[in-house]
């Protein structure tokens, strides 16, 4: 059988996926790190990982993360990010022929991946390329992620702006009283991660972690790392995602949400809108923020900060799907029942993957 997939699972639960064809596996030099969401596991990306390898057998080696599974996802975005960074370095050390790296992350896993790349960022050794000699290694004049060339940073239904704003957690129905109560009680359910998501953390008097993550902070180069990826992509559910709202997952303000109802994509039926957003400088962001009325100030700072880099925004709708009420999982194609519904999202991801 062509493009058969081989996989192995470690004692700790991590899962590597690669082509069974030896020649293809030997030439695969692009590491794809797949990160699951809250209370999830490496199995959540099983279908996606296999589709990547089947389609790109001689290009990619996929690693589904295991360091933050199940209840460990409640330890906080920073703690999980440290674990993920360590795990990525272990994979790189184990597989010596890797040259490139990409991340594909679901839900809170997108925030964890953003933290991890801030840790994995390595600045160029030669700051002034003009002064470099002919003998200078090209890797020395480029910033890297763990020593590898950063390519695609892809998030799927990730709450980039947190979960505290109006309608950012849709199952609270946009009721202000419910949203305020959730902000006070969330840590009882989702522990430290809940505090980070609702921006109620103030460790040692610092700003909330998500705010710190829109700049280089201390020894974590969050924005420098995000900047050096060739592509940054945000896949978002336009509705029926009861866990992560459309605004926070697509890094938009209310008035920036597009009209999608009349946009149909024959090749990818569930993708209803695509937008390439150029990077905005601080001056442009300030101008936009003054025009926006009624938005949460902290949320506005997160939008402006993340908009300093370019994003490809892909909006997804499962409104006509029988499994629409599980959109948060369907967009990831989490299990066998969802393969028929969300497979085109994975296919779109692979077809546009920069190699």
Automatic annotation (TrEMBL):
GO terms for biological process: lipid metabolic process. Residues 27-248 form the DUF676 domain. InterPro entries: AB_hydrolase_fold, DUF676_lipase-like, Lipase-like. This is DUF676 domain-containing protein. It comes from Populus trichocarpa (Western balsam poplar).
